[in-house]
Amino acid sequence: MAGNTTGQVFRLTTFGESHGSIIGGIIDGCPSGIRIDRQFISNEMQRRRAGQSSGSTSRIETDEVEIVSGLLDDITTGTPIGLLIKNTQQNSKDYEHLKDVYRPSHADYSYDKKYGVFDHKGGGRSSARETAVRVAAGAIAKLLLAHSGIKIDAYVFAVGNISMPETQYYERNSIDKSPVRCPEPDVSIQMQNYIEKLQADGDTCGGAIVCYLNNLPPGLGEPVFDKLQASLAAAMMSIPSAKAFEYGSGFESIHLKGSQNSDNFAIREEVVIPYRNSAGGILGGISTGQPIWFKVAFKAVSSLMKERESFNRKGEKVIIPAGGQHDVCVVPRAVAVVEAMAALVLADHLLRQRSARV
Ligand SMILES: Cc1cc2nc3c(=O)[nH]c(=O)nc-3n(C[C@H](O)[C@H](O)[C@H](O)COP(=O)(O)O)c2cc1C
């Protein structure tokens, strides 16, 4: 299986399956001299952890991150950083009835077509369990970005048909006060109620996450295939159950005339900037230094608390009983994953930028 590594200079490789004994990763290309704040990593892991809001999966892992290499007295040395996270709450026995069964809208069918084998225990490598490693590595990327003052803040914008009135920047405090990570208190309550109702019905729902990248220097992004928005889109679309990505004026730009969408320049604090920033902080694939914002849509996950019909590998009809460990809506937990993937992309482009000119 290829494609387990992301990044060109700041590179993360992950390994491990949902029901294996351990998941982990190696960060290669992290500069020396970064103080690793273990409490910060633990807080980031906590934001992805299950069990913080209703509708969350019953699989609640401790998600303690063991750093096995790359540090001297908690400061990075420039050598590969090894990350390990134990799986302790997997109940593989509960998945025996799914052996050889294609669960609808999971990766079982396509893995089988590609590899001739699929892991029925929680989806194996396709499981979002792997995203715990991304959050741990993303925390280290954030510590690197903090040296340049770069900030990343994501929040839940929509859950099912319940949506925030508009896209704007919110501070981390107001986001984390909400159990569903929606910074508008009234909307947050509506979202929680909806998730609880769906949980009672045994169903699931999708949602959207908005992410803001602030204090970025101009110049990040390589102008052809590795445009900054292309790297962000690829990173976001690699998150399990992500269905769409838009940035800046996004799909709204279909309806805007050139005169409405054009990024005119103005002088602020003696610097020329594209003041309207409808380009979303990126021109020609390169950051302008203005805030970048993007939105990621997530589908309703396919594990349901309802009996379902499906087929097995022999083509026989099977009934999948209601049950299993799953989230009613993944977006509150996916906020941490979106931020982590953004941090990995920015850390990589920040280091690549340093080779752009003498
Ligand atoms: C944080 C997070 C948790 C997830 N938990 C579940 C889950 O409990 N049950 C489920 O069916 N899918 C869950 N998913 C989504 C599946 O991993 C994903 O839908 C599946 O692997 C198929 O991939 P695809 O939807 O990207 O095509 C989760 C996704 C994320 C981001």
Tell me what the structure shows:
With 358 residues, this protein is an alpha+beta fold. It has a single domain, classed as 4-Layer Sandwich (Chorismate synthase, AroC fold), CATH 3.60.150. Helix content is 26%, strand content 23%. It has eight helices and 19 strands. The strands form six sheets. It has a five-stranded antiparallel sheet with strand order 1-2-3-7-4, with helices on one face. The protein is globular. The mean pLDDT is 94. Bound molecules: flavin mononucleotide. Flavin mononucleotide binds next to helix 8.
N-to-C span: 39 Å
Q: Assign the CATH architecture.
A: 4-Layer Sandwich
- Give the neighbour order of strands across the main sheet: 1-2-3-7-4
CATH domain class:
Alpha Beta
Name of the CATH superfamily: Chorismate synthase AroC
- The mean pLDDT is 94
Helix content: 25-40%
Low-confidence stretches: none
Task: Please report the number of helical segments.
Answer: 8
Q: What's the main sheet like?
A: 5 strands, antiparallel
DSSP E strands, number: 19
Rg on CA atoms, Å: 21 Å
Strand content: 15-25%
CATH topology call: Chorismate synthase, AroC fold
